[in-house]
Amino acid sequence: MAVDNYTIGVIQMSCTAEPDDNLDRAVLHVREAARRGAQVICLPELFKTQYFCQREDASLFDLAEPIPGPSTKRFAELARELHVTIVVSLFERRAPGVYHNTAVVVGADGALCGLYRKMHIPDDPLYYEKYYFTPGDLGYKVFDTESGKIGTLVCWDQWYPEGARLTALQGASVLFYPTAIGWHPAEKEEWGAAQYDAWRTIQRSHAIANGIYVAAVNRVGHETGNIRGRQAEGQGLEFWGGSFIADPFGRIIAEAGHEKEEILIGEVDLKLMEEVRRNWPFLRDRRIDSYAPITQRFID
Which pTM value belongs to this model? Predict the structure, then answer.
């Protein structure tokens, strides 16, 4: 049953070449977030390994796992022990040749509340995700947790207002974005500040436009895609951290730096959501009768 207030935790972490190490540290971070009062806790995108999409390598499909599977089992036990909800980002093996970038919501009783499969799949230098991931086919989802209704999208989804809107319209009070985004080192000096500002701005805009809390959950540190002793060519990626929580007015209520692991704690206040939506009634004033062309690729 939803309450007027609940506390969320955002885990900004670095990722090593050892999946077991990453998993163990993620568990420790979840324990610390719970100790600090978090009731719903979100991990970064694909935290179990270094970001492997920096190269196209068919052997890396071996990193995927079924859901339910070993990772969900461990987090289900942890969620039940700590009585917290956990958003876990995994490389899902759905069937031979069918893989997804998936967020799993594990309830405070240890049960799987459901899955969200990443809808928007990028294909950019060192972000070769179309090679690995089948686009999501579950649509935009809201999960009714013990604390309240939450939504979760994944990384590249965060640039699309349509996904945020459709999730908010289902009653989510907070929208989590597990993320793996960073700078190309050669571009950072010229474009780094603008890229980070754009990333932060677009997600704050989702909070404002929908009268909802937004939690962006990034990884941090320089990575070369080191998996099983092999790494991608080039300079790698410098994941910029900068995880944050924004309230329905777009105000940043907690924010991490760019250099180290951090845990952010923030309060979701449903009364504040009501107040903001009364004064900025964007959902009331939507002209839903005029939006049919939005389903077209481009209007010539």
Answer: 0.96
* Strand partners of residue 142: 151
Q: Which helix (H) or strand (E) holds 178?
A: strand 174-178
To the query of whether residue 146 is one of the catalytic residues in this protein, the response is no
**Confidence at 70, pLDDT banded by 50, 70, 90:** very high
pLDDT for 1 beyond 50: no
Catalytic site includes residue 45: yes
Task: State in words which class domain 5-295 has.
Answer: alpha beta
Active site residue 53: no
Q: Say how many C-beta atoms besides its own lie within 10 A of residue 55's C-beta.
A: 17
CA angle, residues 80, 179, 25, in degrees to nearest 5: 45
Query: What residue spans define the domains of the chain?
Result: 5-295
Instruction: Calculate the CA 214 to chain-centre distance.
Output: 10
pLDDT tens string 100-130: 999 999 999 999 999 999 999 999 999 999 9
Catalytic residue among 45, 92, 129, 255: 45
List 92, 155, 223, 255, catalytic entry:
155
Cα distance between residue 12 and residue 221, in whole Å = 10
Catalytically annotated residue among 53, 118, 141, 238: 118
Query: CA-CA distance, 207 to 168, in Å (whole number)?
Result: 9
- pLDDT: is 234 or 192 the higher one? 192
Q: How far apart are CA 267 and CA 253, in angstroms?
A: 9
Share of the chain above pLDDT 90, in %: 95
Asked if pLDDT for residue 37 goes beyond 60, the answer is yes
Residue 233: band (very low, low, confident or very high) from pLDDT cuts 50, 70, 90: confident
d(Cα 180, Cα 81) in Å, to the nearest integer? 28
What DSSP letter does each residue of 197-244 carry, written as one string?
HHHHHHHHHHHHHHT-EEEEE-BEEEE---BTTB--SSS-EEEE---E
